[in-house]
Specification:
- By secondary structure, the protein is α/β, with parallel strands linked by helices.
- It folds into 3 domains: 165 residues, P-loop containing nucleotide triphosphate hydrolases (Rossmann fold, 3-Layer(aba) Sandwich); 91 residues, Rossmann fold, CATH 3.40.50.11420; 107 residues, 3-Layer(aba) Sandwich (Rossmann fold), CATH 3.40.50.11410.
- The chain is built from 14 helices and 14 strands.
- The longest helix is centred in the first third of the chain and has 15 residues.
- It starts with 11 loop residues before the first strand and ends with a helix.
Length: 402
């Protein structure tokens, strides 16, 4: 996969934070060498997070995020600050931009504390070096800590040095996890079952299927892509059994019947629960479904926003299957994209998608919100396997007990 086409969920997120008029947007524009953020002397010009994908070597593909000022005022200001906190939950590296003519204030120190509480690597950038040097003489600035740097966004001073500092921070968003590569060896055969239905994107595979196939190829293994009816012919044509069969979770029932018990079976959604989330938590939480009483409240959450089809998995198929399986009536609510409730106290269960559009830090943040609220959280593939009675079989290949 080319760096330019790297999905958002696989990029390293770099967030620029600070007070209003510290020059965050100017630093972002200088850093990206593009005018992606509106710059003004008026405080609070940036009202919503602004995202820009770029490549920063040797770090790789990144997502730059410019945020509103953390000292914004009024009701709208409070909403912008909440947006800023949402961004902090997903970034892998933070850049604290300080107005160098004023120095660090209590708000800046609060941000540093928030970074440290989240174990978030950060760099402090003292902006407006050009103005400081006009006042006290060229080349004269106060010494700063090793993880800090003076820059001038307007004159592009030390911007290259800032890029170097960011690029050499050691960050692995996935914490060494792989989608499937650690489960297979070079030369292994993996069969990917990718049903083409009305919800499938025309002319292409959905993102988890693409990424899983790429991970297989990067391992020098062999990926075979097929649909459900062709499974018997595919298996019969192979000189050796596949190391693993991975299916779309919605086809679990049919694929489980066609794939012999001797061949390990799992789903794309379950692979992503292991890759970006907490598979153990998802399996334990799936067991809560049968304990829920009539009228229980279930949140179904997706990490992306897309046009809902008439037979959409999250809004139609899952609720119907859940109520049919349990014989109970539940109250369902939905969230999608960046929106995820901070207050989950009224929910009894959260069912999340695989999170292919979320980065690992944000997915784990959502899981922690649920854990802190005492609300079980599972995912699509795990709950579907649970309802069809095959969870032990399809989780075994991922838990190392197959």
């Amino acid at each position: 996969m080319e760096l330019s086409s790297t999905p958002r969920g696989e990029r390293i997120y770099i967030g620029f934070f600070g007070m209003r008029n510290a020059g965050k947007s100017s630093v972002v524009n200088a850093f990206t060498n593009q005018n992606i953020a509106i710059v003004s002397d008026v405080k609070g010009t940036t009202t919503d997070p602004v995202y820009k994908a770029m490549e920063l070597l040797p770090l790789g593909p990144v997502m730059i995020v410019d945020t509103p000022g953390m000292d914004d005022e009024g009701d709208l200001g409070m909403l912008r600050i909440e947006k800023c906190k949402e961004v902090m939950a997903k970034v892998d590296i933070a850049i604290l931009v300080v107005d160098g003519t004023l120095g660090m204030n209590d708000g800046d120190r609060m941000l540093k504390k928030m970074f440290e509480e989240r174990n978030l690597p950060y760099i402090t950038v003292y902006n407006k070096l050009d103005l400081v040097q006009q006042r006290i003489g060229k080349g004269r600035t106060k010494e700063v800590a090793q993880d800090s740097i003076w820059v001038s966004a307007s004159d592009k001073i030390n911007i290259t040095d800032l890029k170097e500092m960011v690029a050499h921070l050691v960050v692995d968003p996935s914490n060494g996890r792989k989608i499937i590569a650690d489960l297979i060896e070079p030369g292994d055969i993996v069969v990917l079952v990718t049903p083409i239905d009305e919800a499938a994107p025309k002319g292409r595979l959905i993102l988890p299927q693409q990424q899983t196939l790429r991970d297989i190829l990067d391992t020098d293994a062999i990926g075979i892509v097929t649909q459900v009816p062709q499974i018997p012919d595919v298996l019969a044509s192979l000189s050796k059994p596949p190391r693993l069969v991975v299916t779309d979770s919605q086809a679990f029932k049919e694929v489980n019947a066609l794939v012999p018990e001797s061949i390990p079976l799992t789903s794309f959604s379950m692979l992503f629960a292991r890759y970006k989330g907490d598979l153990g938590e998802a399996i334990l939480s799936a067991n809560y479904l049968e304990k829920l009483e009539d009228g229980a409240k279930i949140l179904i959450s997706e990490g992306c926003t897309h046009h809902r089809q008439c037979n959409d998995i999250g809004t139609v198929k899952l609720p119907k299957m859940i109520e049919k399986t349990t014989g109970k009536d539940f109250h369902f609510e939905w969230s999608s994209g960046d929106s995820f409730p901070d207050d989950l106290s009224t929910f009894d269960l959260v069912i999340h998608c695989g999170g292919c559009m979320l980065n690992p830090r944000e997915m784990m943040h959502r899981i922690r919100i649920c854990q802190n609220a005492g609300v079980p959280i599972t995912n699509y593939g795990v709950i579907l396997a649970k309802m069809q009675g095959i969870l032990p079989r399809v989780s075994a290949p991922l838990l190392g007990n197959h």
